[in-house]
Amino acid sequence: MENIISKHEARHIMAAKGREREYDALVHRMLPGLVEEWVSQGLEVSIEHCFIRINGACSLKISCISPAGEESHTVLLNGDAALFPIFCCGQLKTVVTSKRLNLTLSQLVKDSAIRLHHRLKASNDAGLAAPQTSAAA
Q1: pLDDT value of residue 12
Q2: Rounded CA gap, 71 and 14, in Å?
Q3: Contact at 8 Å (CB) between 112 and 66?
Q4: Coil, helix or strand at residue 61
Q5: What is the pLDDT of residue 124?
């Protein structure tokens, strides 16, 4: 079961693994930069992030939310040094180094936004194509 935790608790967990520098870089430089990039690109989704604990593991969860649904990506933070496994829908998507984390997260969120946009468009198109019924007799 996943529990939302504070950024301070997440930092404490990372510090216990000797990864507080990576945590600080993630929270104070990378995430603000990514959010600014996503906003400037006009992604048509709401993007939320939080820190979670799943079975003792500390992770960063980034969710893309639109009227068509939600896609979430979870980055395991307290695993092996300098490696970040990234999960989508509970499945391991990739494992990246800290140098590739920024680019990979950016692309995953962009891809999710595109999929959600297409899903919403298809849903809207299907609604327009549905036969109209009249209540008049």
Answers
A1: 92
A2: 25
A3: no
A4: strand
A5: 78
Q: Name the DSSP class of 27.
A: I
Please check whether residue 110 is in contact with residue 43, taking contact to mean a CB–CB distance below 8 angstroms.
yes
Contact in structure between 30 and 101 (CB atoms under 8 Å): yes
CA 65 to chain centre: 10
The residue length of the chain stands at 137
Q: Is the pTM of this model over 0.70?
A: yes
Max CA pair span of the chain: 74
Q: Which residues contact 42 (CB under 8 A, 6 or more apart)?
A: none
Strand partners, 92: 87
Check residue 129 and give its pLDDT.
56
Q: Which two tokens stand for residue 107?
A: 């692309």
The CA distance from 101 to 59, in Å, is: 14
Q: Which of 17, 10, 26 minimizes the C-alpha distance to 98?
A: 26
Below-50 pLDDT ranges, the chain? 130, 133-137
Contact criterion met (CB below 8 Å) for 55 and 13? no
Is-contact 98 85, C-beta < 8 A? no
CA distance 109 to 128: 28
